[in-house]
Design brief:
The chain has 230 residues and is α+β, with helices and mostly antiparallel strands. The chain contains seven helices and eight strands; from the N terminus they run ααααββββααβαβββ. The chain has helices at 10-16, 22-56, 58-70, 82-94, 128-132, 175-192, 203-208; strands at residues 103-105, 111-113, 116-118, 123-125, 193-196, 211-213, 215-217, 224-227. 42% of the residues lie in helices and 11% in strands. The chain is globular, with a radius of gyration of 20 Å. Strand 2 (111-113) and strand 3 (116-118) form a beta hairpin. Helix 2 (22-56) crosses helix 4 (82-94). The strands form four sheets. The chain has a two-stranded antiparallel ribbon. Strands 2-3 form a two-stranded antiparallel sheet. It has one domain: Cytochrome P450 (Cytochrome p450). The protein binds protoporphyrin IX containing FE. Protoporphyrin IX containing FE binds next to helix 2 and helix 6. The site of protoporphyrin IX containing FE (HEM) has 19 residues, from helix 2 and helix 6.
Length: 230
Amino acid sequence: MALKDAEPDLISHLITNTPDNASGRELLYGESRLIISAGSETTSTALTFIFMQLATHPSYMRAIRKEHRENSAEYHCQRPLPLLDAVIHESMRLWPSVFFGAQRITPPEGLTINNHFIPGNMIIHMPPFTINRDARNFADPDSFIPERWTERPELVLNKSAYNPFSTGPYNCAGKGLAMMELRSVVGRVVNEFDVILPEGFVAETYWEGIKDHFTAGPPKQLVQFVRVKE
Ligand code: HEM
């Protein structure tokens, strides 16, 4: 607020468009809390789950490293790489950063979806966790199969079911940036390090320990990042 000639960014846009009074400041504090957790917690959770998937499926770790090295000359995180993106999408399908799905209100006249009438002014939501594990949308829905996003598209029965960033006018404002962060961190870390789980690690206990507290909360888990030799 004190910087009058600041570079335009998200918060300067909000400040300019919010009344400078007590209730305006409450709004700004709320938006600030939202943008901080929306932009950090979601991405760190997605990264945690992706690294855990790679640690438990090391063949994909080696394949991503190979793909990264083969494309290193012209690589940029704004551009998808087939296997890297497939692993990111498959991890976010099984373990989306936001399980429950944002709420919406039906229009006053109600709404018909797939022949079901939903009355007006009802709070509805579409939980990604449940939708992503529905066998009507994805074949073998509980299995980690990145190939469904590449050479095995028949395993995706309903592509529109996959919305880890939500959809519509209020979808994630940071989707593009988030994908750049995920590609950049996963690609570069895996290029240099193997992610190794400790002796006695039990995958089921880890995945079952995830909690839903608005965003998904992974349990604490120590892993080792071991520099690859070649
Ligand atoms: C893997 C990372 C991320 C995931 C999975 C994710 C997912 C989501 C989801 C599901 C929503 C709810 C949208 C709705 O109400 O329908 C949302 C909202 C939002 N996200 Fe993200 N997000 C991620 C990263 C980011 C980043 C990096 C930023 C910004 C730097 C960001 C900014 C926002 C904002 C501002 C909203 C609120 C949009 C609104 O209410 O209009 N997100 N995100």
